[in-house]
Fold this protein.
Amino acid sequence: MFRQAGGREAGRKALPGIGVWLGTGPDDYAEPDWAIVDADYKDALVTKNCYAQSVFRLVLEVTSSNWGNDLVTKAETYAEAGIPVYVIADRKHGEVLVLTDPVGDSCRTRSRYERGHNVIVPQSVGVSLELPVDVLLDGTATDRLGQGGAGRAADAF
């Protein structure tokens, strides 16, 4: 989907397991399940597999047993980092949340999508992309990346 939406032409890449450098301590980073970054993200390497916040356009988390961490702590963390779009595939509540317009430790805009609908990725990401809620929450029969929920969510990309 991402490639078909013109991700490469827009100068973006969709990647799993890439760290967002938060910079408040020597090991302070977050690793979203999936991210859309600038194509030249490698120029922004800070340490190990962690990159400057400025190259991230969207981060996606698929909730697990510690779903509160994704809904509260990571929402605050990504907002403070200035990540423009945070997508949460909330399997506990059966919905997808899209948080945008970060200010301080919160986001001004919060959109909720239910099963049977598509998440419309905000234009600020740089690609026209619709992600099926059902795929983000459940995936398909094939778990291509072998990463549980994150791998299934990758099917949407």
